[in-house]
Write a structure and sequence with these properties.
Layout: E1 8-12, H1 19-33, E2 40-44, H2 47-57, E3 62-66, H3 83-87, E4 93-96, H4 99-105, H5 109-122, E5 125-130, H6 134-138, H7 142-153, E6 166-169, H8 183-200, H9 202-207, E7 209-213, H10 218-225, E8 232-235, H11 242-251
Parallel strand pairs: 1-2, 1-8, 2-3, 3-4, 4-5, 5-6, 6-7, 7-8
């Protein structure tokens, strides 16, 4: 974490929590993070809980993000949701290109190249997820994969808005496995992602926030968040309980 970049801890609930369960969670979380000055906090919730969570977090330090959106403003896209549908609810941002969407639902870099600028244009903060599989890491292809994802997915973002994007480096082998990247691996990959952004625009490279994601827990968060090029965390499983998520937010204040 470097001075000047505000740490950003986001909880990705994935397909968890009904509205009733989300309300239980948020009533437990808000008192625990009310004094987390200097840290941006977000929950990334299912579409069905967005409206309720925006209402329940108004005036608090928790922001509410969606987990996906379509790139088009409207159209014959059954089951999809547009940026305007999210901003109408006062949603703050959207996770784009999570590896589960890439692997299980065919999310492509070509679509992401349209989604990232569409989100910014609508006033949403995009969290763009990138990361390699275990086979790609073992095969020495991590940097090539990250380069392809970052350069393609950000290609249509206006240079002056590049720093508003948040990138989450999530090694796929570390997601939901309990197998967290070592601090050296996380730092190396996040520094590489930053260098890719700096290659497009030097100022944006210095300012853009890069999260680490993949088995972040209260007991490993402080070490990861202290790394020079890690500006926050995208947390899956440990974001489902108020106490563990709040402990990770707390670790970002150190
Ligand atoms: P876990 O924290 O459960 O490994 O999930 C990480 C993730 O995919 C966040 O988007």
């Amino acid at each position: 974490m470097s001075q000047g970049r505000i740490p950003f801890v986001a909880g990705n609930w994935k397909m968890h929590k009904t509205v009733a369960e989300a309300e239980m969670f948020i009533s437990g979380l808000l008192p625990r993070v009310s004094s987390a000055d200097g840290v941006d906090v977000a929950i990334c919730v299912p579409f069905t809980a967005l409206g309720a969570m925006v209402d329940s977090t108004r005036g608090s330090r928790a922001q509410v993000f969606a987990q996906n959106m379509h790139q088009a403003p409207s159209g014959a896209f059954t089951g999809e949701v547009s940026a305007a549908m999210l901003t109408e609810l006062d949603v703050h941002g959207v996770v784009l290109g999570h590896s589960e969407r890439r692997e299980l639902f065919g999310e492509s870099d070509a679509a992401l190249a349209e989604k990232v600028p569409a989100a910014l244009e609508a006033g949403l903060i995009p969290i763009l997820c990138v990361g390699e599989t275990e086979a790609e890491r073992d095969g020495g292809e991590t940097e090539a994969k990250l380069r392809r994802q970052v350069e393609t997915d950000l290609a249509e973002v206006p240079r002056e808005r590049l720093a508003e994007v948040v990138i989450a480096y999530e090694p796929i082998w570390a997601i939901g496995t309990g197998k967290v990247a070592t601090p050296e691996q996380a730092q190396e990959a996040c520094a590489f992602v930053r260098s890719l952004v700096a290659g497009i625009d030097a100022d944006a490279g210095a300012a853009i926030r890069i999260q680490y994601g993949g088995s972040v827990k209260p007991d490993n968060a402080a070490e990861l968040l202290a790394l020079e090029d890690v500006d926050g965390a995208l947390v899956g499983g440990a974001s489902l309980e108020p106490a563990s998520f709040a402990a990770i937010v707390e670790a970002a204040r150190a």
